[in-house]
Write a structure and sequence with these properties.
Layout lengths: L5 E10 L12 E7 L2 E4 L10 E9 L11 E10 L4 E11 L4 E2 L6 E4 L12 E9 L22 H10 L3 H11 L6 H7 L6 E3 L2 E2 L30 E3 L4 E3 L6 E2 L11 E2 L6 E5 L3 E5 L9 E11 L12 E7 L2 E4 L11 E9 L7 E8 L7 E9 L16 E6 L7 E14 L9 E2 L9 H4 L3 E4 L3 E12 L12 E7 L2 E4 L11 E11 L5 E11 L2 E11 L4 E3 L8 E4 L1 E2 L8 H5 L6 E9 L28 E11 L5 E3 L2 E3 L2 E7 L2 E4 L10 E10 L5 E8 L16 E9 L8 E12 L2 E16 L2 H8 L7 H4 L4 H19 L8 H8 L8 H29 L4 H16 L4 H17 L21 H7 L9 H33 L7 H20 L2 H12 L12 H7 L10
Parallel strand pairs: 4-10, 7-9, 21-26, 34-37
Antiparallel strand pairs: 1-4, 1-9, 2-3, 2-5, 3-11, 5-6, 8-9, 12-13, 14-47, 15-46, 16-17, 18-21, 18-25, 19-20, 19-22, 22-23, 24-25, 27-42, 28-31, 28-37, 29-30, 29-32, 32-33, 33-36, 35-37, 38-43, 38-47, 39-40, 41-42, 41-44, 44-45, 46-47
Helix pairs in contact: 8-9, 11-16
Organism: Arabidopsis arenosa (Sand rock-cress)
Protein name: C2 domain-containing protein
Family: Belongs to the MCTP family.
């Protein structure tokens, strides 16, 4: 009968392992040896505190085992990549006499031991081990092949990943263990049962046999968390008008490989090449950051001597350009003219050319019946010339019309045409009619074109309200409570009420507005009397145009002026005699100027794209050139329904400085190719360019949306120029990520190429030593509330002005690009910022932990070296600063080899978007003020109170420590202060009498003393400090 008794070694976790990968981390796995039976766990990548939670089974025959001289050896190794191998991290030997039965097992932690004398080992491992006859060795079915979803853009990267991954046999060996490694909360919710712990079958090998391959890579550990039976079902999202048959079209962070959320390299053939039979391919300098796209251009200029119509006797001509199944039409003239002029360009992409003949028809528009064909011109595509930029445009020529029946007969009339083969670099490309947008008509034609926009020139308008005179209220028996209200467009600001009730009030307050050139609004100043808490009475007002104010470029004061106020409330209702009388006029003293020395911020300073002041006279020379090639997008999610299937009409917007660019809209495709290149001048390298992808909902058709519909956001990418190497072309695919009320979603990939060219290294270095903003921001700074309010007003002005362009850059697009809601409360952002602070402090905590280990002589060799180094630095203190700077120099050189190879992108873990709950997301997407129910708001308020209570406790503890320091000399505790000042007296005498080096050396050696000379109780200074009083007991 087969022995079913098993020895179970439950490998739980490990902590504080030794880094082995050269980057401060390790990829550990555990190997257990029991009587020549070897078994190992999976590999946990990049972790010094791994969690395996994995059971390993071994055959256990009690009759053949002697508990006194046998043991279990548990070894921890680091898996080396890409060269197969492993590095020793530590081991533990457990005598079999310590083994218990299943019901008596406990979780135990063991300190890892060295294998050799010179081994560098640290850390602990947590284990459970017991003997069981009820748990059977698991027999796993053949694992399913692991095929994560790969979008078309990732096809090239998949080949490279395959070269670095394990072979197929190795993947099959460990796939079953990888698919059941840790409890999955998402799967628990779907399946309704608890995930069991992994039970690894033992591999019976001879002691001398060697593993041919290392433990499995993390590429098979990261798996889909969806229910495999439900993953095949289509998804329907009616709220977003989204319909998709593939569930991976809308990927969430927990549903896919995290590699899909990272920036990927792209190997593309960029730059223009023109065929040259004599010299092969010739490169051009235009559009060298995008893929070359050939277009057939047809420019229809005008016609003459057209024959009159057979019915009306006149002619309503238009031109139809036909190439295969594609047809483009000009507008028709209804003025009965025979000399029409269109001057319109048609563009047909070379990839979609379906014919070898281009036909141009001239037709007469008929109200009733079929349009008459007046004639046509045919072109053989093989004979069409090619225009190579930057050559001059091809001159149009007159062509005689032929009979449309194809008999070669010449008819009356001529048409002026120019036909050539070019690329997207042609100046006719932006305004051309494109064959792939033939279904768009009317106003939608203007909404799909590529355009360049310029933000309006913004100024800060500073109104210094000084004083007023002769403020007479309507009730002469009382003194007025006067304040001033200023209004510019939709902006309204008020001064405080004058603290003294008087007819000659004094304020001396500044009111700051945002205005834009050309100035369309006027400044309206009104002086009002607070009659009642709910009633204000206007005493007088004045309206001033913007062009009368002085423009100030620096901090020099502006001359003030007195303005007479118009009496409010008098007018046509008064008798003529009263209106002719000379009325007594109040007046107000103002100092008004347009501030040209500030930079008007319409975006956050954290990712600002321009730092120049408003006044052009204060601009400096550019320090570089930024070139962006917007190549295309891949794997976009369907944003609307069209003919029962998902569709997206995507366009891309890029914003840097005052220049906005918008690509043309590619219709009805989830993988648009724009291949458009744009250039910006760079005045400061520490700035950010923002690119966003949107779905066009204004194409003039019912399916694309109504006039009130908004363009849907698909995703956004930010690139900081200072992270780019000069003169290097970065070609990458950036994931488009959108945080939605139901979680973080990947909506596709944006493919762009970037090149930052520096004009002068000296100017770049000069910029790094100067303030980020103009000097007026530091001489006369705004308050935080003013900055937020002015930024919001500037954003509204920019959105309004750009919305009036043709085609308009809509408000929802501008708001998303400028991140207008970044200042609103979010629990997720609060957590992210808290953990950012903790990440910064973790380095200091690690140093403190290391110093504690040195003081406790946990690593004797290190402690001895630290003592020697301390002795040298005390004896030669002039070496301290050089040693510190040299150390930082070598750290920088060491980190150079692991420097980032691509621009940074949105970090999901840093943003705390991977673990955010649905309630927190609902709170983040709530309107302001809230639109949720009273009960839900009350629950959220209680949660916020609990979080604030913990913060309050931490802040109180920090304040208590500071108050204890103050109490040392405040005599609040007389005995403690007496002891402290006596100690200070004694210390001053000792420090004066003894050499400083001797005292520093003695103090340091005492602090670093061996644990044999230490007490486990707190030290005397610590006890004394904790007994000092704070002001906590005085709080209510």
């Amino acid at each position: 009968m087969r022995n079913t008794t098993k020895l179970v070694v439950h490998v739980v976790d490990a902590q504080y392992l030794m880094p082995r990968d050269g980057q401060g981390s390790a990829s550990p796995f555990v190997e257990v040896d029991f009587l020549n039976q070897l078994s190992k766990t999976r590999t946990v990548p990049k972790s010094l505190n791994p969690v395996w939670n994995q059971k390993l089974f071994f055959d256990y025959d009690k009759s053949l085992i002697s508990h006194h001289n046998q043991h279990i050896e548990v070894s921890v190794y680091h898996e080396r990549r890409p060269i197969p191998g492993r590095s020793f991290l530590g081991r533990v030997k457990i005598p079999l006499s310590n083994i218990v039965y299943k019901d008596d097992q406990v979780y135990q932690r063991f300190t890892l031991e060295k294998k050799w004398l010179l081994s560098s080992v640290k850390g602990e491992i947590g284990l459970k081990f017991y003997i069981s006859s009820s748990e059977q060795e698991q027999t796993f079915p053949p694992p399913l092949p692991f095929k994560p979803y790969t979008s078309p853009t990732q096809a090239s990267g998949t080949e490279e990943d395959t070269a670095d991954s394990e072979t197929e046999d190795s993947l099959k060996s460990f796939a079953s263990a990888e698919q059941e490694d840790l409890p999955d909360s998402a799967s628990e919710c779907v399946e309704g049962k608890k995930t069991e712990e992994v039970e690894e079958p033992v591999q019976k090998l001879h002691r001398q046999e060697v593993f041919a391959r290392p433990a499995p890579m993390h590429s098979i550990r990261l798996r889909s968390r969806e229910n495999p039976h439900e993953a095949k079902k289509p998804q329907y999202r009616g709220a977003n008008q989204l319909h998709t048959q593939n569930p991976n079209h809308l990927q969430s962070y927990g549903d896919t490989d995290p590699e899909d959320f990272k920036v990927k390299d792209m190997n593309l053939d960029l730059g223009e090449r023109w065929p040259n039979p004599n010299a092969g391919e010739r490169f051009t300098g235009t559009y060298d950051l995008v893929e070359q796209m050939f277009y057939l251009y047809v420019r229809v200029v005008k016609a003459k001597e057209l024959p009159p119509g057979s019915i009306t006797g006149g002619c309503d001509p238009y031109v139809e350009v036909k190439l295969g199944n594609y047809k483009g039409r000009t507008k028709h003239f209804d003025r009965k003219t025979t000399l029409p002029e269109w001057n319109q360009v048609f563009a047909f992409t070379k990839e979609r050319i379906q014919s070898s003949v281009l036909e141009v028809f001239v037709k007469d528009k008929e109200t009733l019946g079929r349009d008459d064909i007046l004639g046509k011109v045919m072109f053989d595509l093989n004979e069409i010339p090619t225009r190579v930029p930057p050559n001059s445009p091809l001159a149009p020529q007159w062509y005689k019309l032929e009979d449309w029946r194809g008999e070669g007969k010449v008819v009356r009339g001529e048409i002026m045409l120019a036909v050539w083969m070019g690329t997207q670099a042609d100046e006719a490309f932006p305004e051309a009619w494109h064959a792939d947008s033939a279904s768009v008509h009317g106003e939608g034609v203007f909404n799909i074109r590529s355009k360049v926009y310029v933000s309006p020139k913004l100024w800060y308008l500073r109104v210094n309200v000084i004083e007023a005179q002769d403020m007479i209220p309507s009730d002469r028996n009382r003194l007025p409570d006067v304040f001033v209200k200023a209004n510019v467009g939709m902006q309204t600001l008020k001064t405080s009420i004058c603290p003294m009730k008087t007819t000659n009030p004094l304020w001396n307050e500044d009111l700051v507005f945002v205005v834009a050139e050309p100035f369309e609004e006027q400044l309206v100043i009104s002086v009002e009397d607070r009659v009642h808490t709910s009633k204000d009475e206007v005493i007088g007002k004045i309206t001033l145009p913007m062009n009368v104010f002085e423009k100030r470029l620096d901090h020099r004061p502006v001359h003030s002026r007195w303005f007479n106020l118009d009496k409010y409330g008098t007018g046509v209702l008064e008798p003529d005699s009263r209106r002719k009388e000379h009325k007594f006029s109040s007046r107000i003293h103002l100092r008004i100027c347009l501030e040209g020395g500030y930079h008007v911020m319409d975006e956050s300073t954290m990712y600002i794209s321009d730092t120049r002041p408003t006044a052009r006279q204060l601009w400096k020379q550019p320090v570089g050139m930024l070139e962006i090639g917007i190549l295309g997008a891949n794997g976009l999610v369907p944003m609307k329904l069209k003919d029962g299937r998902g569709s997206t009409n995507a366009y891309c917007v890029a914003k840097y400085g005052q220049k906005w660019v918008r690509t043309r809209t590619i219709l009805d495709t989830l993988s648009p190719r724009w291949n458009e290149q744009y250039t910006w001048e760079v005045y400061d390298p520490c700035t950010v360019i923002t690119l966003g992808v949107f779905d066009n909902s204004h194409l003039g058709s019912a399916q694309s949306g109504t006039a009130d519909s908004k363009d849907s956001r698909i995703g956004k990418v930010r690139i900081r120029l200072s992270t780019l190497e000069a003169h290097k072309i970065y070609t990458h695919s950036f994931p488009l990520l959108v945080l939605q009320p139901h979680g973080l979603k990947k909506t596709g990939d944006l493919q762009i190429s970037v090149r930052f060219t520096t004009l002068s290294l000296t100017n770049i270095i000069y910029n790094y030593g100067h303030p980020l903003l103009p000097k007026m921001h530091y001489l006369f700074p705004f308050t935080v509330n003013q900055v937020d309010g002015l930024r919001y007003q500037a954003m509204n002005i920019v959105a309004t002005r750009l919305g009036r362009a043709e085609p308009p850059l809509r408000k929802e697009v501008v708001e998303y690009m400028l991140d207008v809601d970044s200042h609103l409360w979010s629990m997720r952002r609060s957590k992210a910022n808290f953990f950012r602070i903790m990440s910064l402090l973790s380095g200091y905590f690690l140093v403190g932990k290391w110093l504690e280990d040195v003081c406790n002589w946990r690593y004797p060799v290190t402690s001895v070296l630290v003592n020697v180094l301390f002795f040298i630095l005390v004896m030669y203190p002039e070496l301290i600063l050089p040693t510190m700077f040299l150390y930082m120099f070598f750290i920088g050189l060491w980190n150079f080899r692991s420097r980032p190879r691509h621009p940074p992108h949105m970090d999901m873990k840093l943003s705390w978007a991977e673990a955010v709950g649905p309630d927190e997301l609902d709170e983040e997407f709530d309107t302001f003020p809230t639109s949720r129910s009273q009960e839900l708001v009350r629950l959220r308020y209680d949660r916020l109170r609990s979080v604030a209570g913990r913060i309050q406790t931490v802040v109180g503890d920090i304040a208590a420590q500071g108050e204890r320091i103050q109490s040392l000399l405040s005599w609040r505790d007389p005995r403690a202060t007496s002891l402290f000042i006596l100690f200070c007296l004694a210390a001053s005498v000792v420090l004066y009498a003894m050499p400083f080096k001797a005292i520093a050396l003695a103090s340091g050696l005492y602090y670093l003393r061996h644990p044999k000379f230490r007490s486990k109780l707190p030290s005397l200074p610590s006890n004394f400090f904790k007994r000092l009083p704070s002001r906590t007991d005085s709080l209510l």
